[in-house]
Amino acid sequence: MSFILHWLKNQLADLGRIFTMFTDAVRWSVIPPLRIKNCIKQMEFVGVKSFSIVMFTGIFTGAVLALHGYETFSIINMETMVGGTVAVAMAREMGPVLASIMVVARAGSAMAAELGTMRVTEQIDALVTMSINPVKYLVVPRLIAGITMMPILASIFSLTGFAGSYFVGVKLLGINSGLFMANVTDIVKLEDYTHGMVKAVVFGLLLTLIACFHGFNARGGAEGVGKATNKAVVSGCVAIVVADYFLSALMFG
User: What gap in Å lies between CA 47 and CA 131, rounded to an integer?
Assistant: First the structure.
């Protein structure tokens, strides 16, 4: 029982420190100068360099959904519903959630490792001695990159996922292409896409904030950097899944 209470105490303390870092980042983001070059560099790192893995994952996710959807809908002779259901799933859930998890695995881990290395080698302390606020210099550009690039990556995931489902459903399984697309236009609404983009913005904020927090608080040399990176990936994925439930309940409940 004492172990559980100690664990809960540590988790609540971490949540408080994460919130404090977030408020500091918001405050420093509106204080000039805004380091545009750092922001663009992080946007390239988070967005452009994640493009290929997001696109590749999206194609095969859509293909798998189409394959299983066809098997299910064929029982009731409604195979043409595959396109609409996959499109809705991509817009609402798969696009923002899976794209964010891919970015956590690629960019979030790298952020935590980079900042953790800077912490254990006292580079962050050196910034403070030079009167450079480390939150403004290191955290704010990464948060801006996560917030701005995740909706784009989620859109790419959804688009390529639908393309994968179209190829499997129409070209491989023989679903009529006109009926396939007609069901998409009938089922998918603009709100499905906009709600997915709101989720992507929140997930982008969460994954970069959590990665920066664990990197900032790394201790104990190379081993500590490894632990911080592991915590950043695990915590980021858990936060995305939990936030997805509450956002879905709020938007679609």
Answer: 30
User: Tokens for 107?
Assistant: 């960019």
Closest Cα to residue 84, out of 193, 184, 190, 159? 184
Q: What are the residue boundaries of the structural domains of the chain, listed by start?
A: 36-252
d(CA 53, CA 47): 11
* Token code pair at residue 172: 């491989």
Q: What does the pLDDT look like over 188-201, one tens digit per residue?
A: 888 989 999 999 99
Cα distance between residue 154 and residue 194, in whole Å: 11
How many C-beta neighbours within 10 Å does residue 209 have? 23
Output the pTM of the full model. 0.92
